[in-house]
Amino acid sequence: MIDVSQTPDNPANQESCNSCSKWAPRFPGVFFPAGCLLSLLVTWCICCKPTEADAQTWRTGDQFQIAAGRGGLSLGWNNAPLGSELHVASETLKLAVFLDRRIDKSRCVALQLDNISFEQGLWQIAESGPEPTAVVRLQNIFYFGPPAAAAHLQNSVTELETLVRSSKLPPAVRRALEKEVAFRKSDPFEPGLAIQELLSRNRLKVDGADDLPHDYWRPVDLPEMSQAQLLNLLLCGFGLELTVSGEGRLAIEPVDLQQLASYRFSDVQSREFDSAKLETGPDIEVRKAGNQTELRGQTKPLLDTIREFAFLSAEETEKRPTGKSVLSIHTTARRGDIVATIAAHLKLPVLADPDCQQALQEIVEIQIDRATPDEILEQAL
Fold first, then answer.
1. Beta bridge partner(s), residue 108
2. Which residues contact 175 (CB under 8 A, 6 or more apart)?
3. pLDDT (tens digit per residue) in 135-184
4. Amino acid 273: pLDDT
5. Fewer CB within 10 Å: C terminus or N terminus of the chain?
6. Are 155 and 298 in contact (CB under 8 A)?
7. CA-CA distance, 254 to 149, in Å (whole number)?
8. Sheet of 134-137: strands edge to edge?
9. C-alpha–C-alpha distance, residues 55 and 51, integer Å
10. Which pTM does this prediction carry?
């Protein structure tokens, strides 16, 4: 088992919280739930730093969008550091999270949440801390950071991608910015140097690239995204963004927080937003951009709307993972194997409390027809 205190956010010096979660022993291929919890119990803890050899396979595209808003999870945080909690939770669920450098990664989180989506869980963590924090869902990743940055990040990304498509940039520059890449750093790194390396590798000349702040960030493993989005995600931590001038020149400039922020839902979210008929209020402008819905407004009302929709949409999707499937099972087997079968059927990760390992080895008989997974788990546990 790996103790949180042995894997610090800062390799040089990082204090852990007084009480932290640890990895439990595994059965092959799956973790098992403790006690009689009928929905997924995720006990989060710290993992080893990512390497090129064991890089995470993230959910992307519609898989990411659907899983991010799916309800039915029970999530537990046992007074462990925020940075390690988010890192392990995102790897367990294969949903990438980018934690902004301005957020205190060492603060302890102690929450127990039931029947929620992962996105709701992120909002609950964000709102449990002393510093204002917000969550926005991008193409294949969640951003977790200061409200103003969160509200304007997607605006920076979508505006840049629109300018790249419509501007008179050379074809090689457009292809470089539109190219989708993963981004992995297995050791603490300087983001300014990483940005400069990306620009140099793609032969992109950018005004202001030589004046980036110096800082060290923890190791990261991010899913594939356009290099335009990746650059603005990294620059966001410094309050900067990559833009295209009227003359077709690339430049790094401060984000204009005075302008209206905007947020464009994915196709999946847009369909849910349209069916939810959410009342947005007079401070939010709702636009349609093809199949996608876009919101525009000041930072607070925009984020309030995004948050309200996150909690509303999970109510619509929580039926997908657990409650409505109907199964029949007739077997005599180890309790743990039965739970593993249900978890595999639902494609959900499960973690076990170390105290319940003996119970999971016991042989039990189950004879049940046309039951929900929750009902089968109740009999097994």
1. 81
2. none
3. 988 888 999 999 989 888 888 888 887 777 776 788 888 889 989 999 99
4. 81
5. N
6. no
7. 11
8. 97-99, 142-145, 134-137
9. 6
10. 0.67
CA distances from 169 to 199, 201, 205, 245, 313 (A): 15, 17, 12, 10, 39
Distance, in Å, from the CA atom of 7 to the CA atom of 46, rounded to the nearest integer, reads 7
Whose tokens are 């799916």? That residue is 70
Percent of residues, the chain, with pLDDT higher than 90:
16
**Torsion angle of the four alpha carbons 29, 351, 314, 220, in this order, in degrees rounded to the nearest 10:** -80
Q: Which of 352, 356, 358 is nearest to 76 (CA)?
A: 352
SS (H, E, C) the chain: CCCHHHCCCCCCCCCCCCCCCCCCCCECCECCCCCCCCCEEEECCCCCCCCCCCCCCCCCHHHHHHHHCCCCEEEEEEEEEHHHHHHHHHHHHCCCEEECCCCCCCCEEEEEEEEECHHHHHHHHHHHCCCCCEEEECCCCEEEECHHHHHHHHHHHHHHHHHHHHCCCCHHHHHHHHCEEEEEECCCECHHHHHHHHHHHCCCCEECHHHCCCCCECCEEEEEEEHHHHHHHHHHCCCEEEEECCCCCEEEEECCCCCCEEEECCHHHHHHHHHHCCCCCCCCEEEEECCEEEEEECHHHHHHHHHHHHHHHHHHHCHHHHHCCCEEEEEEEEHHHHHHHHHHHHCCCCCCCHHHHHHHHCEEEEEEEEECHHHHHHHHC
Task: Answer yes or no: are the C-beta atoms of 99 and 346 closer than 8 Å.
Answer: no
Q: What distance in Å separates the CA atoms of residue 296 and residue 286, rounded to the nearest whole number?
A: 7
Of the candidates 282, 271, 260, the one whose C-alpha atom is nearest the C-alpha of residue 309 is: 271
309/123 Cα distance (integer angstroms): 12
Residue 134 in contact with residue 214, Cβ under 8 Å? Answer: no
Report the distance separating Cα 314 and Cα 316, nearest Å: 5
Q: How far is CA 306 from CA 153, 185, 273, in A?
A: 14, 30, 10
